[in-house]
Amino acid sequence: MGLKAFLGKILAKRTAKKVAKWSANAVSEQERILKSLLIQSAGTAFALDHDFENIKSYEQFSELVPVRDYEALRKYIDRVVAGEPNILWPGKPIYFSKTSGTTSGAKYIPISSESMGHHIEAARNALLLYVDQTGNNQFIDGKMIFLQGSPELTKKNGVRVGRLSGIVAHHVPSYLQKNRLPSFKTNSIDDWETKVDAITEETLNEQMTLISGIPSWVQHYFERLIEKTGKPTIKEIFPDFSLFVYGGVNFEPYRARFNKLIGKKIDSIETYPASEGFIAFQNDQNDPSLLLNTSAGIFFEFIPADRYFDDNPPRLSLASVEVDVNYALVLSTNAGLWAYSIGDTVKFTSVDPYKILVTGRIKHFTSAFGEHVIAEEVEGAMKKALEHFKDTDVVEFTVAPQLDPSEGLPYHEWIIDFSSGPTDLSAFANYLDAEMQTRNVYYADLIKGKILKPLEIRNVSKGAFNEYMKSQGKLGGQNKIPRLSNDRKIADGILQCSE
């Protein structure tokens, strides 16, 4: 055992005790954080506009500070981006995390020195809790790769700008710098396919122990490694590879394919980082749900997802949430985001401690006929289908409504890139449809009432999803295809790339 691994085991025990303490007192921690945020931001333009000095309770906060998305908060953010200090948070942010918006164009999410520290701490905590639970600390001595966006940053009115993953690359602890790959030069390559080729060359002779990234792009990296070396599985290339860390998408639809590519089952840790804050992380290998990061400068609120678009939807603090209810997530942060609707939906699996699963996006759904199918349902159905049809592997998929078929009733179209297709595609489609009907009663009623016909599958050519992402300038990094849409823009774009 190397020195880093030995020290990591000691630190892991201390971290586990610390996390256990704040997670057991999550409600009081949240009350403390809200009070602290209000005090720290006193004197900012936003605080003055919303009478912060007279807010003494959560009820007053929810009355005086409305829930806003990026567009609604933009008049303040634009002032911050223009270089004005003391607008949303004292002083100026240290970074802007640049993300792609649909209606807003480029979005600039402020990151303060306070919030940046919590990003790093949460990522470290996720790894250390894994070490404490499993005893596996050997990966700390090996090489680690983080498939991420470019670490090269620009400046906007004196503030550094980049993608979140590229920003985080500048804050990797010094004791891990010698372990980490790829090199700064390789990591800075803009073109994703060129970058994956360079990463493959740079790592294929290394002893990789930890690999991190969005599953679809890590899968692409694995396929390149196998193609380059001619070896049948990743375990032949990286025999010490033992831990996969991911976030951003549900891993379950990829798990079977990963196991085949790797050639063995390995442990995985799911994390939930966002530009707005590090929201949650998996703390138990026996439980896929994520521990809500309730002691990290974020005050959480929750809106029942089925009430989100009401004129006056209910807002709940952590103390009032229930398990198995789909909530839209709202954040107030120590970077100056106030009652900010992040766009994600979650549900609680436990309130002792508070643990969540990410269920999708509030605007990513299929409800052309009132069925309101969400990502959790399509991903669950696909997982069950792949477990049943063991000869089948899926690279990627998305779902969209087909409102105007050339003949017959409308239907949900599942656009799928199979790496290994089912021997009986109709049986696979029927199984998927039956699973969907068990998960969504409204969808089942529409099928039984002959408003919709059962789903249909379009098998697209290998690489069509990547070609579509490339055409949109979103190939690689932290970009990902939505699991489902309420229109056909994405679906038709993928189908065109498959022709």
Spatial sequence of strands, sheet with the most strands: 6-3-7-8-9-10-11-15-14-13-12
Give the overall form. globular
Quick one: how many beta strands?
Answer: 18
CATH architecture identity of the largest domain = 3-Layer(aba) Sandwich
Give the count of helical stretches.
17
Question: DSSP strand (E) fraction?
Answer: 15-25%
Please indicate the count of domains: 2
Indicate the CATH topology of the largest domain. Rossmann fold
Tell me about the biggest sheet? 11 strands, mixed
How much helix, percentage-wise, in residues? 25-40%
What structural class should be given to the helix and strand makeup? alpha/beta
**Which parts are unreliable, with pLDDT below 50 for 5 consecutive residues or more?**
none
Intertermini distance: 53 Å
For the residues shown, what is the average pLDDT? 91
CATH class of the largest domain: Alpha Beta
What does this entry look like structurally?
With 499 residues, the protein is an alpha/beta fold. It has two domains: 1-295, 3-Layer(aba) Sandwich (Rossmann fold); 375-498, GMP Synthetase, Chain A, domain 3 (2-Layer Sandwich). 38% of the residues lie in helices and 22% in strands. It has helices at 3-24, 26-40, 45-49, 58-64, 70-81, 113-134, 164-168, 184-187, 192-203, 215-229, 234-237, 252-262, 375-388, 425-439, 441-448, 464-471, 489-498, and strands at residues 95-100, 106-111, 143-146, 154-156, 159-162, 180-181, 208-212, 243-247, 267-274, 277-281, 290-292, 298-304, 326-333, 340-351, 354-361, 393-402, 411-420, 456-459. The strands form three sheets. An eleven-stranded mixed β-sheet has the order 6-3-7-8-9-10-11-15-14-13-12. A four-stranded mixed β-sheet has the order 2-1-5-4. The chain is globular.
